[in-house]
Amino acid sequence: MNISVNVSAYFLQQKDFVQILERLLNQYPELPKFSLEIEVLETTALENVSNMSELVHLCREMGVNFALDDFGTGYSSLMYLRHLPARTIKVDKSFVRDMLVDMDDRAIIEGILKLASVFNREVIAEGVETVAHFEALLEMGCEQVQGYGIARPMPANQVSEWVLNWKGIDAPFAEE
In what residue span(s) does the EAL domain sit (predicted)? Predict the structure, then answer.
């Protein structure tokens, strides 16, 4: 199971960020490479693309992936997508929420999925709260989602039990 961690712009901009991360990773040698993913807000990543790109490359050498969080809400640009080697793009929930009734939001998601495919990136749709949203995203080719429809936030010590007992996408919506 992969773990994603949101990291603030302030912490990413520290000169010793890579050294701190390396020291922390060395404390857990059993952690498989690339099972840790750092999520950074799109707007944070775009503030200084060349520095962020270098940081991402250094972290990838250590076996850590990056995700662009809230994609589409900042100043999305093909140039940034090309030069910022984040493995994952997370579609912001503001597009997912209304995609069933707003064809512009649906078109944005479809466009992001196509761009991600061209740039060989993974996509995760945020804010999936209903079976209808999940099914529409799956139909568009988005197989990774997150949101209250999957699970509510939970303490780390409850994750293993949740994984063992999860019955699929329909289970969380049974009360609807």
Answer: 1-167
DSSP 8-class letter at 32: P
Output the domain CATH number for residue 13. 3.20.20.450
- d(CA 68, CA 37) in angstroms, rounded, equals 10
Order of strands across the sheet that contains 88-91: 3-6, 36-41, 64-71, 88-91, 122-125, 144-145
Strand partners, 41: 69
Q: What is the pLDDT of residues 16-30, one digit of tens each?
A: 999 999 999 999 889
For 76-153, where are the alpha helices, taking DSSP H only?
A: 78-83, 93-98, 103-118, 131-140
Residues 26 and 19: their CA atoms lie apart, in Å, by: 10
- What total number of domains does the chain contain? 1
